[in-house]
Write a structure and sequence with these properties.
By secondary structure, this protein is mainly α. Helix content is 77%, strand content 0%.
């Protein structure tokens, strides 16, 4: 996918109040949003660094190490987000008697583990 298309999709998603998948939304504190955004911006910087490495014809193992670091950063982002989801969304839904949240969580975990 071209970088321009990705930017357009990102802008469209940012303008939308709803998630593209479920239609549900989640209000986060400013601090939580800022922390998650900072993580993503660091990851974005890492990806751009790998792009630069490719442009400079960097040695394959050097690129692979950087890609591994990006994967680790994304996994860390997912852990933080999943922890927050469990502590808020899942707990709140269970307390309200909505046990379907468990099925949603299992479905999400299955997708994440592909």
């Amino acid at each position: 996918m071209e970088q321009e298309e990705i930017l357009e999709q990102t802008e469209t998603l940012e303008q939308s109040e709803e998630c593209c998948c479920t239609g549900k939304t989640k209000k986060r504190s400013q601090k939580a949003t800022k922390d998650l955004m900072n993580r993503l911006k660091r990851i974005e910087g890492q990806v751009r660094g790998v792009q630069g490495m490719l442009e400079r014809d960097a040695y394959c193992p050097d690129i692979l190490v950087q890609v591994s670091a990006i994967n680790a950063a994304l996994n860390s982002f997912n852990k933080v987000l999943l922890t927050e989801h469990l502590r808020t969304c899942v707990v709140d839904n269970i307390r309200e008697g909505n046990d379907q949240i468990i099925d949603e969580l299992v479905h999400t975990l299955k997708k994440m583990m592909k």
